Amino acid sequence: MSRFLDKFRLTPAGNLPDVSLQSANSILPAAQPEWGSLDLTLDGIVLLDDKAVILDANAPALEFLHTSLSAISGYSLWDVVPEEVAKQNEEATELALDSADRHSFIAHESFENSWVEYTFRRCPAGYVVNLREAGPAQKYQRLLEDSKRYNQLIFEANPNVMWVFDRTTLRIFAVNQAAVKFYGIARKVFMTLGMEALFPQGEGAELLRSLQTGKEEQSEMRLCKQKKMDGKEVLVELAWSQVKWDGHQAVLVSLADISDRHLADGVLKRANAELQKTLVAQQVELKNVRHDLLTFTQAVSSDLQDSLHVAHGFAARLAEKYSLVLDDQGRHYVRRIQASISQLAKLVDDLRTLAQLPLRSGVPAMVNLAPVCLSLIADLRKRDPDRDVTIEMDSRLMLVGNKGLLTTAMTCLLENAWKFTSKKTEAWIKVGLLPGKAPGELVLLVADNGAGFDPVYSGNLFTAFQRLHSSADFPGNGLGLAIIKRVAQVHGGTVWAESPGQGGASFFMSLPQGEASAS
Questions:
Q1: What range(s) does the Histidine kinase domain occupy (predicted)?
Q2: Which of 413, 451, 485, 518 is the most exposed place for a label (fewest CB within 10 A)?
Q3: How many Cα atoms sit within 13 Å of 493 on the Cβ side?
């Protein structure tokens, strides 16, 4: 038994007629009158009865089948050939021979990795089957047919709506199941339609013009309408591609229904338009409010400054001219009045600074803050000449920003550090620049060994009028750190603070570094 026959279960036929290859003489070509000479040809020949049972076979055929005649006589040919060949071709061959005298197919035998051409012809006894090794052309033809079959399966199972029409006649001759369901048109009816039947109001003309020019092999997605069986028109995204299909110069059309998406887009656009109107109205209102607030702040600060200037002048005159007639208690009251006036004047200045900061943003430029800091520290030493504070600072503090706003922020930071180190016998203040977490970002650092703060309340540090220390110990109005935060925000940065357990505080201001102005 051959290696192939070991794989199959063979069923003997019943009583077999006494037929040999010699009895097939009438159907063989005239070029081969001697049947014995057929064993010399490379073609295998198998004689079957009308039930496809093997009656006889020549030597080349037995080599193709890898067996002997005695082992296969009386068995169906489909039980002898490899199972994969029988499974793929038995039914199709029987159907073909019901209406034709000849049928051929090419099969791939995976066990031997070979391609064999089978040709069936009718004869008086039943059928003569020629077996021959398929050449490259036949192999490629089989592969091409397989590819066409796979493409057809992909086309039919594709969830996108697809149909094909002839470029010349415009008749639709292929349609997938998704298209049948989408249009509500039966497949048989589809095959009677021209492509223009699916385009309402002549919208298919653009597609036809593109085809007639011949410049485009395929199109980009385009919006158009399609008409269903019930007359309903829907908006779709359509694309097409010129293809060869079963010998036709054809066009493959693919489309997606976007009606629901279009409706949703319309609702979204209307909502966006309403939102944009509301936003514009709120921006105008906010601009008016800011203008009114600025006007109010300027008016109030101007009136307050005038009044405070007058009050400060009278208090100074009182202390100067009438100090001799005032007792110690009276002179103490005068000093309290002067201190309160100075504190209130500083509060007015800081409020005005806080309100006007956004209007002072200006154009960023390269700034060296080192000279600015040295000048501010010199002013602090003049105001408090008895103090000895060590300053640690780089010789250059180069960064991009608004010089006026950064000067305001450094004034608040250094005054804050100077104030909270006032009770230290060996006070120090550090100023420096650190690389930020984001690319191109710098962090301005001001640290001191002063009183520090409780980290639990660090979230309140940069809020206006929030103080973590008594004004009796450290005077102030609680606006300095709020001003620093506003400066950082104007620059697109942030602020934060840290205070270690042993005292002291470090304040950080991140500053994104954009391009400096050329001016």
A1: 299-515
A2: 518
A3: 28
Q: What is the Cα–Cα distance from 411 to 484, expressed in whole angstroms?
A: 9
Residues 217 and 344 in one domain: no
Domain that holds residue 343: 262-353
The string of pLDDT tens digits covering residues 206-215 is 777 777 665 5
253 occurs within a structural domain: yes
Per-residue pLDDT tens for 398-446?
A: 999 888 889 888 998 998 899 888 888 889 999 999 998 888 889 999 9
- When divided into structural domains, the chain yields a total of 4
pLDDT tens across 63-109, in order? 888 899 999 999 999 999 999 899 989 999 998 898 889 999 988 87
Q: Residue 207 is which amino acid?
A: L
Tell me the whole-structure pTM to 2 decimals.
Answer: 0.41
CA distance 323 to 375: 36
Q: Domain ends where: 117, 144, 171? A: 144
Whole-angstrom distance, CA of residue 427 vs CA of residue 325 = 41
Compute the distance between CA of residue 461 and CA of residue 469 in angstroms, rounded to an integer: 11
CA distance 437 to 34: 95
Q: For residue 239, what pLDDT band results from cuts at 50, 70 and 90? A: confident
Of 236, 257, 278, the domain-final residue:
257
